[in-house]
Amino acid sequence: MYVEPPENIISLHEFQKLALDRLQVLKKIEFMNDANQDHQVIKETVIKMTKAHRIAVIADRNVLSSFSMTTEERKEFRVNDNISHFICRLAYCRNEELRKWFLTQEARLFNIRLQDAQHEIIQGLLKDQCGISYQVCQESDEDWQIFRHQITFKQLKLSDQIPSNFVKVPFKEAISLVSRRAVFLHLGVAYVPVKELTTILSAHFRAKVSAELVKAYKFWPEIIKDERIQRMLINLSNHSAIDFNIYEQKAPTDGDKIKLSDLDYYSRKSFPPCMKSLFTVLRNKHHLKHYGRLQLGLFIKGLGLTMEEAYTFWKQEFCKNMDNDKFEKQYGYNIRHNFGKEGKKQDYKPWNCQKILQQTTPGPDEYHGCPFKTFSEEPLRQMLSSYGLKPDDMKVVIDKRRENLHQVACLRLYELSHPNGVSDNVGNHPNAFFNSSVQYIKDVEKNKFKRGITAPSTEVVVGTAPVETVIEKPKDVEMDQI
Ligand code: SF4
């Protein structure tokens, strides 16, 4: 229930890593819920992810025992869980929208952890964490004797229709059960089956986290006195700059034709920053405004996607937030127009770097343009780290950007993330960056094969996860000072 703030001493690097690990889990939960995935599949995925990120797994003893974790490991997982929750709480307390997102995903995570938990665990949590212990019905109670059939009306099995299976809960605390008519209500008391206590615990959890988020915001001016922490917390809530890595990316298997299903793989490995950022925003927000759609749309056209594939690409993403009819009316024409099938029937070419750099400065909720020009330094560093750049290399690129040599900065990024790769026309055209990067990866794989290395290795460095290298000089920070 995250009652005690952590008092551990951790480095800034760990601070960021723990928070990003948790955010990957929360984002995956959001993604799977939006996609209406089966509860069991979501639960299994979350267990796998939380285990991989070494944060607390689940409250089900049966599941826990099957993990054969040592006591030390469990302790470490719990500590990581607590720290990462509190960091994210700080990062997401700043406004209503962030608070709402964090609260929704945390409540979902909490519910997943409680699924299948025995009611003794739930009752224990209610007592220990919320100081609540509900009165259990007794055979001798007058209300049980009068209303037993009404109280047990939802229990089909005779074995469940016993008084010790029900607790008396003030109706305000059982509001969601009352509203779906799942419990019997009499004189302000809801008679709740013990197996439904999860719902009540979950409501307490939501109310508690919600109140704590508001409280955390009151301390925001104190928190941001340390500029490094401030930058980090703001970045942690900027979903357009974080690569959550929530889509499955299988390496393309056949030939040179780029397929729709390959885009997630390539977006991490070979897209230049301008396209990677648009692609990430599209995946996270399921929408892009006009210039962003044009910039990314023409780029993917340049990758060789057919009009039908491009249509499916946009539709799949946009229709997570709208119905098919609205999508067709508002966006279908423009997609066909890009392919020369509407209006002047002109075959539009992908934009080159100059054209992208000349675009108007992106307004609110716009992400077009060249990140070397439009991003401030911190998000840019985050973007660069997603290409596996080390702090020294990052400095080389950032220096060029400070001189306003945006295209040179892009070329340096390519050279540093693709050592000894051919960089034909990179820095002049996003599609050249892409083509050179794809060729580079192919060559590296071919060389590995020639040298007889068949097992997967980490030799191809482009597109590594963004969490490892953002901090230049890790310094210790005490959590309780935050
Ligand atoms: S320099 Fe060109 S390819 Fe590189 S990020 Fe900017 S617009 Fe994209």
TrEMBL record:
Keyword presence, Iron: yes
All residue ranges annotated as the DNA primase large subunit C-terminal domain in the record: 267-434
Pfam (any one): DNA_primase_lrg_N
Gene3D superfamilies on file: 1.20.930.80
Keywords: 4Fe-4S, DNA replication, DNA-binding, Iron, Iron-sulfur, Metal-binding, Primosome
GO cellular component annotations of the record: alpha DNA polymerase:primase complex
GO function term, MF aspect, one: metal ion binding
Named cofactor requirement(s): [4Fe-4S] cluster
BP terms from Gene Ontology: DNA replication initiation; DNA replication, synthesis of primer
Domain of life: Eukaryota
InterPro entries per record: DNA_primase_C, DNA_primase_lsu_euk, DNA_primase_lsu_euk/arc
Positions that bind [4Fe-4S] cluster: C274, C353, C370, C410
Cofactor binding notes: Binds 1 [4Fe-4S] cluster.
Ubl conjugation keyword on record: no
Summary of the function given for this chain in its UniProt record: DNA primase is the polymerase that synthesizes small RNA primers for the Okazaki fragments made during discontinuous DNA replication.
Record family assignment: Belongs to the eukaryotic-type primase large subunit family.
Name the record gives this protein: DNA primase large subunit
Organism this protein belongs to: Stylonychia lemnae (Ciliate)
